[in-house]
Specification:
This protein has 273 residues and is α/β, with parallel strands linked by helices. 29% of the residues lie in helices and 19% in strands. A 5-stranded mixed beta sheet has the order 3-2-1-12-13. A 5-stranded mixed beta sheet has the order 4-5-9-11-10, with helices on one face. The protein is globular.
Length: 273
């Protein structure tokens, strides 16, 4: 059995199928982890959702910011932006089934057997793995509940840009969601920076990539994540970044998690093949 994590697909269905062919994916025994952002900006969000849903027990996915944005738009909370490419999902006959399936996906996944976690963007350095799972569950419960409309209506925005256990209500849920799905950097003051998308080599010196920040609780768990296309594919300490910007003309990447050597496997975006 092989376990592969796959970077941000964002509607690049053709590249996803090419990548699975390249790794000789076997649905009889292999497992796939998707780091979120299955949809949007790419040409075939509907095909991606249907394919991953049909994988059933062979696939695990976490929610990314574009996935949550789709759910908010479908709930009537937000209008699509000109750059959104999710009309095929919103107009599909099986729309309700797909959206219900998407809303059931977690913000964080943890595999104790492999001591490996998966999130879309980050885990706050103050959070242990157990605490992060508990905080993710707070948001997941609301997304799956009749209160989801209120959550989506208050989901957008970058404040508060710090984490505190004292946060309550919508501010708490927004902060948790932003950390899991949008964060890249922390400032020297411990504030989350949601604006800078540069790789660390080009970022201001007062910003530290979240995965290089000192943690309050010792963590050795591997964490695989996406969201940061300018960062590309990197293995730093126990952190594995796999968003190689397929939707921007880059590549779609897989990494085999159940082997000792970290090997990135790429296929170029469709227009470059």
């Amino acid at each position: 059995m092989s376990l592969y994590a796959i970077g941000d697909v964002q509607g690049c269905y053709s590249s996803l199928r090419a990548l699975l062919d390249k790794v000789s994916f076997n649905s009889d025994c292999d497992q796939l982890w998707f780091v979120g952002d299955l949809v949007n900006r790419g040409p075939e969000s509907l095909a991606v959702l249907r394919f991953v849903q049909d994988l059933d027990g062979n696939a695990t996915t976490v929610l990314g910011n574009h996935d949550l944005n789709l759910l908010a738009i479908a709930a009537g909370i937000r209008k699509p932006r000109p750059s959104d490419t999710i009309d095929d999902v919103l107009q599909a006959k099986d729309r309700d089934d797909l959206l219900d399936w998407l809303s059931q996906q977690p913000l964080m996944h943890f595999d104790a057997d492999n001591d490996c976690a998966m999130v879309h963007a980050s885990i706050h350095p103050d959070w242990s793995i157990d605490k992060a799972l508990g905080l993710a569950a707070e948001v997941e419960t609301v997304v799956r509940s009749p209160q989801c409309h209120e959550f989506f209506a208050n989901m957008y925005g970058s404040k508060p840009n710090h984490w505190s256990d004292k946060l309550r209500g919508n501010k708490r849920l927004r902060s948790i969601t932003n950390i899991f799905t949008r964060a890249r950097y922390l400032s020297k003051d411990g504030l989350m920076d949601y604006a800078n998308t540069d790789p660390p080599e080009k970022a201001p010196r007062d910003l530290t990539p979240w995965y290089l920040c000192k943690t309050k609780s010792a963590r050795t768990t591997r964490v695989v994540f996406g969201h940061w296309s300018s960062l590309g594919c990197r293995h730093v300490n126990q952190f594995i970044a796999i968003d190689s910007g397929c939707v921007w003309g880059g590549a779609l990447t897989a990494v085999k998690l159940n082997q000792e050597i970290t090997e990135f496997i790429h296929v170029p975006c469709e227009k470059n093949r």
